[in-house]
Amino acid sequence: MGLALNKMNMELILKTLDYTRVGILITDPSKHDNPIIYSSKGFTDITGYTKEEVIGNNCRFLQGEQTSNETIARIREAVTRKESIQCEVLNYKKNGDIFWNHLTIDSVYMEEEEAHFFIGVQHDITEQKEAEQKYLQSLQRIEELETPIIPLTDKVSVLPLVGEMNESRYHKMTTQLLQSLENTFAETLLIDVNGLTTYNEEIMQRFIELANVLSLMGTSMILCGIKPAMAQKSITFADRPTSKLRTASTIRAALDIASK
């Protein structure tokens, strides 16, 4: 009666596992190459591999060219130590498509059999990873828009600044600007401040510092688009050698200066 009940319980558990949406594999490390001894229907749904194709094989058939060797090394180390591990790994389906796998592996010790087994649970998180990548790309595009360096001629580029300028944005802008100028050298950089909504002594000091840095790199800077109110405010800035800045009222005027 007890054996029959245990068998019924096991069948119920296995049937329940087949109805889960995640992939589940059980492997036996006591056998050569730690082969798969159980595969759920969810695993077949995710990967396209049937139970007959995976039973008796090691899980490495899920790996491919783009699978991270570092992640695989972490998994192997955890298996060797019979430790649990969670990770995100790029795997391959039967048809060759890639998918992102949120993998959880736990070591289970069965006292009755005096043996260890590994249970691996696979969650297909491809949609989440793609959404995350799109979000990161959007952030990158936003950053690029914050520092949109536009080449006007072979030797002249312009950086239009719009909105609020604060310390954080200035440092980010400077970093991106200097990196960009390393790749695409410009003899003259026009910085159009016409669209700035904030203008104070600290910002003027930053522009003076930037002009000095660019000068050391062989690029001259012309500040253009300065509104009358900005010009009047600049005069009140104490101890700021604004006269050292090359300025122009418009982009066209700045181009005329750059061409001389």
Describe this structure in words.
It is a single chain. Helix 6 packs parallel to helix 7 (201-216). The strands form 2 sheets. The protein has a 5-stranded antiparallel β-sheet with strand order 2-1-5-4-3, sandwiched between helices. Strands 6-7-8-9-10 form a 5-stranded mixed β-sheet, sandwiched between helices. Helices cover 43% and strands 26% of the residues. The protein has 2 domains: 2-128, Beta-Lactamase; 144-259, STAS domain (Transcription Regulator spoIIAA, 2-Layer Sandwich). It contains 9 helices and 10 strands. It starts with a helix and ends with a helix. The model is unreliable at 1-5 (pLDDT under 50). With 260 residues, it is α/β, with parallel strands linked by helices. It is rod-shaped. This is Biphenyl 2,3-dioxygenase. Residues 9-82 form the PAS domain. It comes from Cytobacillus kochii. InterPro entries: PAC, PAS, PAS-assoc_C, PAS-like_dom_sf, STAS_dom, STAS_dom_sf. Residues 83-137 form the PAC domain.
